[in-house]
Amino acid sequence: MNYKETKAAVTTVTYNREAVEAQTDNIYEAISIIAKRADQINSDLKKELVDKLDEFATYNDSLEEVFENKEQIEVSKFYERLPKPTAIAVEEWLNEKIYHRSPDTK
């Protein structure tokens, strides 16, 4: 999924409790599902960032030399400006883009 095009809030937002719990009728279950999705998003973003930063990596034995690569800095700043994984997960939840099921139901 492309998290760069999300419309999730970058700042703190207060959500309507009834809207959050509407799909499950249980706020705790809804928050648990959102938290699991946020963990998935966070691991995806982290893997993507590490892969991109590895493209710029220079391996040398000297600890004294530190190179600042402008492209590397720009990539890092871009990922810092993205909404937090929890905000993306809440936005997906409210737009009913998260599939969930309970093992109790068939």
Automatic annotation (TrEMBL):
Pfam families the UniProt entry points to: RNA_pol_Rpb6
Protein name: RNA polymerase Rpb6
GO molecular function, one term: DNA binding
Annotated Gene Ontology cellular component terms: DNA-directed RNA polymerase complex
KW Transcription (keyword) present: yes
Species whose genome carries this gene: Tenacibaculum skagerrakense
GO biological process: DNA-templated transcription
Keywords: DNA-directed RNA polymerase, Transcription
